[in-house]
User: Which sequence fits this backbone?
Protein backbone atom coordinates (compact mmCIF):
# COMPACT_ATOMS: atom_id res chain seq x y z
CA UNK A 1 0.00 0.00 0.00
CA UNK A 2 2.76 2.41 0.95
CA UNK A 3 4.80 1.37 -2.07
CA UNK A 4 1.89 1.92 -4.47
CA UNK A 5 1.24 5.37 -2.99
CA UNK A 6 4.92 6.25 -3.41
CA UNK A 7 4.84 4.94 -6.99
CA UNK A 8 1.85 7.12 -7.84
CA UNK A 9 3.54 10.21 -6.42
CA UNK A 10 6.74 9.40 -8.27
CA UNK A 11 4.77 8.96 -11.49
CA UNK A 12 3.28 12.45 -11.05
CA UNK A 13 6.74 13.96 -10.53
CA UNK A 14 8.41 12.00 -13.31
CA UNK A 15 7.52 14.47 -16.13
CA UNK A 16 9.19 17.27 -14.14
CA UNK A 17 12.57 15.54 -13.93
CA UNK A 18 13.88 16.51 -17.43
CA UNK A 19 12.99 20.19 -17.03
CA UNK A 20 14.37 20.23 -13.48
CA UNK A 21 17.67 18.77 -14.63
CA UNK A 22 17.82 21.20 -17.55
CA UNK A 23 17.15 24.25 -15.37
CA UNK A 24 19.56 23.06 -12.71
CA UNK A 25 22.40 22.50 -15.16
CA UNK A 26 21.98 25.42 -17.55
CA UNK A 27 20.59 28.04 -15.13
CA UNK A 28 21.07 26.91 -11.55
CA UNK A 29 24.75 26.01 -11.78
CA UNK A 30 25.82 29.17 -13.71
CA UNK A 31 23.77 31.31 -11.31
CA UNK A 32 25.39 29.73 -8.27
CA UNK A 33 28.84 30.09 -9.84
CA UNK A 34 28.22 33.77 -10.63
CA UNK A 35 27.06 34.47 -7.08
CA UNK A 36 30.15 32.75 -5.73
CA UNK A 37 32.46 34.77 -7.97
CA UNK A 38 30.70 38.06 -7.17
CA UNK A 39 30.62 37.65 -3.39
CA UNK A 40 33.93 35.97 -2.59
CA UNK A 41 37.39 37.63 -2.56
CA UNK A 42 39.39 37.10 -5.74
CA UNK A 43 42.71 38.20 -7.18
CA UNK A 44 45.83 39.24 -5.35
CA UNK A 45 44.12 42.08 -3.49
CA UNK A 46 41.56 39.78 -1.89
CA UNK A 47 38.81 42.34 -2.54
CA UNK A 48 35.23 41.24 -3.01
CA UNK A 49 34.26 41.97 -6.67
CA UNK A 50 30.85 43.40 -5.78
CA UNK A 51 32.41 45.82 -3.31
CA UNK A 52 35.12 46.70 -5.82
CA UNK A 53 32.71 47.77 -8.57
CA UNK A 54 30.33 49.60 -6.23
CA UNK A 55 33.20 51.70 -4.86
CA UNK A 56 34.77 52.31 -8.30
CA UNK A 57 34.57 55.65 -10.09
CA UNK A 58 32.81 54.05 -13.05
CA UNK A 59 29.90 52.70 -11.01
CA UNK A 60 27.91 55.93 -10.73
CA UNK A 61 28.36 56.68 -14.44
CA UNK A 62 27.16 53.22 -15.50
CA UNK A 63 24.24 53.20 -13.06
CA UNK A 64 23.28 56.78 -13.97
CA UNK A 65 23.26 56.04 -17.70
CA UNK A 66 21.13 52.93 -17.14
CA UNK A 67 18.57 54.71 -14.98
CA UNK A 68 18.48 57.71 -17.33
CA UNK A 69 17.78 55.43 -20.29
CA UNK A 70 14.97 53.73 -18.38
CA UNK A 71 13.56 57.06 -17.18
CA UNK A 72 13.38 58.39 -20.74
CA UNK A 73 12.45 55.32 -22.76
CA UNK A 74 9.76 53.73 -20.57
CA UNK A 75 7.54 56.84 -20.05
CA UNK A 76 7.92 57.75 -23.72
CA UNK A 77 6.85 54.29 -24.81
CA UNK A 78 3.96 54.29 -22.37
CA UNK A 79 2.63 57.60 -23.72
CA UNK A 80 3.02 56.43 -27.32
CA UNK A 81 1.36 53.08 -26.56
CA UNK A 82 -1.55 54.72 -24.73
CA UNK A 83 -2.06 57.20 -27.57
CA UNK A 84 -1.97 54.38 -30.10
CA UNK A 85 -4.47 52.39 -28.02
CA UNK A 86 -6.92 55.28 -27.98
CA UNK A 87 -6.39 55.78 -31.71
CA UNK A 88 -6.93 52.16 -32.70
CA UNK A 89 -9.95 51.95 -30.40
CA UNK A 90 -11.76 54.08 -32.96
CA UNK A 91 -12.95 52.79 -36.31
CA UNK A 92 -11.35 54.32 -39.39
CA UNK A 93 -10.47 53.25 -42.89
CA UNK A 94 -7.25 51.26 -43.11
CA UNK A 95 -7.20 50.51 -39.39
CA UNK A 96 -6.08 46.87 -39.83
CA UNK A 97 -3.19 47.84 -42.12
CA UNK A 98 -2.05 50.62 -39.80
CA UNK A 99 -2.24 48.25 -36.82
CA UNK A 100 -0.17 45.70 -38.68
CA UNK A 101 2.60 48.16 -39.46
CA UNK A 102 2.54 49.54 -35.91
CA UNK A 103 3.24 46.15 -34.32
CA UNK A 104 5.60 45.03 -37.11
CA UNK A 105 8.77 46.04 -35.17
CA UNK A 106 7.98 43.22 -32.73
CA UNK A 107 9.28 40.84 -35.39
CA UNK A 108 12.60 42.71 -35.65
CA UNK A 109 15.43 41.71 -33.32
CA UNK A 110 17.20 44.34 -31.25
CA UNK A 111 20.41 43.81 -33.23
CA UNK A 112 18.65 44.26 -36.59
CA UNK A 113 16.80 47.33 -35.31
CA UNK A 114 20.03 48.93 -34.05
CA UNK A 115 21.81 48.26 -37.36
CA UNK A 116 18.85 49.70 -39.25
CA UNK A 117 18.92 52.93 -37.23
CA UNK A 118 22.70 53.14 -37.43
CA UNK A 119 22.49 52.94 -41.21
CA UNK A 120 19.71 55.51 -41.35
CA UNK A 121 21.37 58.03 -38.98
CA UNK A 122 24.95 57.72 -40.25
CA UNK A 123 26.50 60.77 -42.01
CA UNK A 124 25.69 59.20 -45.39
CA UNK A 125 22.46 57.62 -44.23
CA UNK A 126 18.91 58.17 -45.41
CA UNK A 127 18.05 60.91 -42.92
CA UNK A 128 21.05 63.08 -43.67
CA UNK A 129 20.67 62.61 -47.42
CA UNK A 130 17.01 63.63 -47.21
CA UNK A 131 17.76 66.72 -45.10
CA UNK A 132 20.59 67.75 -47.43
CA UNK A 133 18.40 67.32 -50.51
CA UNK A 134 15.64 69.41 -48.94
CA UNK A 135 18.12 72.08 -47.92
CA UNK A 136 17.22 71.80 -44.24
CA UNK A 137 20.88 71.38 -43.26
CA UNK A 138 24.10 72.37 -45.01
CA UNK A 139 26.15 69.49 -43.61
CA UNK A 140 25.34 66.04 -42.24
CA UNK A 141 24.11 65.81 -38.64
CA UNK A 142 26.57 63.84 -36.54
CA UNK A 143 24.85 61.21 -34.45
CA UNK A 144 27.84 59.07 -33.56
CA UNK A 145 31.18 59.62 -31.87
CA UNK A 146 32.40 60.33 -28.35
CA UNK A 147 32.05 64.08 -28.90
CA UNK A 148 28.37 63.56 -29.80
CA UNK A 149 27.29 61.34 -26.91
CA UNK A 150 24.05 63.28 -26.48
CA UNK A 151 23.17 62.46 -30.08
CA UNK A 152 24.11 58.82 -29.52
CA UNK A 153 21.72 58.77 -26.58
CA UNK A 154 19.01 60.26 -28.81
CA UNK A 155 19.67 57.55 -31.41
CA UNK A 156 19.31 54.85 -28.74
CA UNK A 157 16.02 56.35 -27.53
CA UNK A 158 14.65 56.54 -31.09
CA UNK A 159 15.68 52.95 -31.80
CA UNK A 160 14.13 51.63 -28.59
CA UNK A 161 10.96 53.69 -29.02
CA UNK A 162 10.50 52.34 -32.55
CA UNK A 163 11.35 48.74 -31.71
CA UNK A 164 9.75 48.14 -28.32
CA UNK A 165 6.74 50.48 -28.07
CA UNK A 166 4.66 47.70 -29.60
CA UNK A 167 5.40 45.52 -26.55
CA UNK A 168 3.73 48.06 -24.28
CA UNK A 169 0.96 48.68 -26.82
CA UNK A 170 -0.05 45.01 -27.08
CA UNK A 171 -0.57 44.79 -23.31
CA UNK A 172 -2.51 48.05 -23.01
CA UNK A 173 -4.58 47.49 -26.16
CA UNK A 174 -5.57 44.01 -24.96
CA UNK A 175 -6.65 45.50 -21.63
CA UNK A 176 -8.66 48.20 -23.39
CA UNK A 177 -10.61 45.52 -25.27
CA UNK A 178 -11.84 44.19 -21.92
CA UNK A 179 -13.39 47.49 -20.85
CA UNK A 180 -17.18 47.50 -21.03
CA UNK A 181 -18.14 49.95 -23.77
CA UNK A 182 -21.32 50.81 -21.88
CA UNK A 183 -19.20 52.56 -19.24
CA UNK A 184 -17.59 54.79 -21.82
CA UNK A 185 -20.89 55.47 -23.56
CA UNK A 186 -22.54 56.31 -20.23
CA UNK A 187 -19.74 58.76 -19.39
CA UNK A 188 -20.29 60.47 -22.73
CA UNK A 189 -24.01 60.71 -22.02
CA UNK A 190 -23.34 62.34 -18.65
CA UNK A 191 -21.12 64.91 -20.33
CA UNK A 192 -17.63 63.83 -19.21
CA UNK A 193 -14.88 65.31 -21.30
CA UNK A 194 -12.22 63.12 -22.91
CA UNK A 195 -9.71 64.02 -20.19
CA UNK A 196 -12.22 63.11 -17.48
CA UNK A 197 -13.05 59.78 -19.13
CA UNK A 198 -9.36 59.03 -19.48
CA UNK A 199 -8.58 59.89 -15.85
CA UNK A 200 -11.60 58.43 -14.05
CA UNK A 201 -12.62 55.49 -16.23
CA UNK A 202 -10.06 54.33 -18.80
CA UNK A 203 -6.82 54.55 -16.80
CA UNK A 204 -8.22 52.95 -13.59
CA UNK A 205 -9.64 50.05 -15.59
CA UNK A 206 -6.36 49.71 -17.50
CA UNK A 207 -4.33 49.58 -14.30
CA UNK A 208 -3.60 45.80 -14.38
CA UNK A 209 -2.58 46.00 -18.05
CA UNK A 210 -0.44 49.07 -17.40
CA UNK A 211 1.25 47.31 -14.50
CA UNK A 212 2.22 44.29 -16.59
CA UNK A 213 3.26 46.43 -19.56
CA UNK A 214 5.46 48.75 -17.52
CA UNK A 215 6.94 45.88 -15.56
CA UNK A 216 7.91 43.91 -18.66
CA UNK A 217 9.24 46.94 -20.50
CA UNK A 218 11.23 48.27 -17.55
CA UNK A 219 12.88 44.90 -16.95
CA UNK A 220 13.90 44.74 -20.60
CA UNK A 221 15.09 48.36 -20.54
CA UNK A 222 17.37 47.64 -17.58
CA UNK A 223 19.01 44.92 -19.68
CA UNK A 224 19.29 46.89 -22.93
CA UNK A 225 22.43 45.68 -24.66
CA UNK A 226 22.56 45.50 -28.46
CA UNK A 227 21.16 48.98 -29.31
CA UNK A 228 23.54 50.66 -26.85
CA UNK A 229 26.57 48.67 -27.99
CA UNK A 230 25.89 49.15 -31.70
CA UNK A 231 24.83 52.80 -31.62
CA UNK A 232 27.17 54.10 -28.91
CA UNK A 233 29.78 51.42 -28.29
CA UNK A 234 31.37 52.12 -24.91
CA UNK A 235 30.75 55.88 -25.12
CA UNK A 236 27.58 55.44 -23.05
CA UNK A 237 28.21 52.52 -20.68
CA UNK A 238 25.17 50.84 -19.17
CA UNK A 239 24.95 47.81 -16.90
CA UNK A 240 24.58 45.25 -19.69
CA UNK A 241 27.38 46.62 -21.90
CA UNK A 242 29.67 47.06 -18.90
CA UNK A 243 29.12 43.42 -17.97
CA UNK A 244 30.03 42.39 -21.50
CA UNK A 245 33.08 44.68 -21.59
CA UNK A 246 34.48 43.44 -18.27
CA UNK A 247 33.99 39.79 -19.23
CA UNK A 248 34.90 39.79 -22.94
CA UNK A 249 37.54 42.53 -23.06
CA UNK A 250 39.09 42.54 -19.58
CA UNK A 251 38.56 38.78 -19.00
CA UNK A 252 37.52 39.46 -15.41
CA UNK A 253 34.76 36.93 -14.73
CA UNK A 254 34.31 37.77 -11.01
CA UNK A 255 33.70 41.48 -11.65
CA UNK A 256 31.49 40.67 -14.64
CA UNK A 257 29.47 38.43 -12.33
CA UNK A 258 29.20 41.32 -9.88
CA UNK A 259 27.84 43.61 -12.60
CA UNK A 260 25.35 40.91 -13.61
CA UNK A 261 24.32 40.54 -9.97
CA UNK A 262 23.63 44.28 -9.84
CA UNK A 263 21.34 43.94 -12.85
CA UNK A 264 19.44 41.20 -11.06
CA UNK A 265 19.16 43.15 -7.80
CA UNK A 266 18.05 46.32 -9.59
CA UNK A 267 15.53 44.35 -11.64
CA UNK A 268 14.06 42.78 -8.51
CA UNK A 269 13.91 46.16 -6.73
CA UNK A 270 12.16 47.90 -9.62
CA UNK A 271 9.67 45.07 -10.09
CA UNK A 272 8.86 45.15 -6.37
CA UNK A 273 8.21 48.90 -6.55
CA UNK A 274 5.91 48.44 -9.55
CA UNK A 275 3.94 45.69 -7.85
CA UNK A 276 3.55 47.77 -4.68
CA UNK A 277 2.70 51.11 -6.32
CA UNK A 278 0.39 49.77 -9.03
CA UNK A 279 -1.30 47.06 -6.98
CA UNK A 280 -5.07 46.91 -7.17
CA UNK A 281 -6.70 47.32 -3.73
CA UNK A 282 -8.87 44.47 -2.56
CA UNK A 283 -12.60 45.12 -2.54
CA UNK A 284 -14.19 44.04 0.74
Assistant:
Amino acid sequence: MVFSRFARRFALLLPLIPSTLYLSFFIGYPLAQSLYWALTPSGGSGEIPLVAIVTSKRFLEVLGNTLLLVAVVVPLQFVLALAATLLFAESFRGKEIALYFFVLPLAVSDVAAALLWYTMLSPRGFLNKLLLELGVVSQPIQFFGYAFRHMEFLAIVLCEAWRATAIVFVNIYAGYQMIDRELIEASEVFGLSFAQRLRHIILPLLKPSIESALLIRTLFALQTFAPVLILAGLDIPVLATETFYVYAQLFDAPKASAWALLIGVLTFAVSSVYVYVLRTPRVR
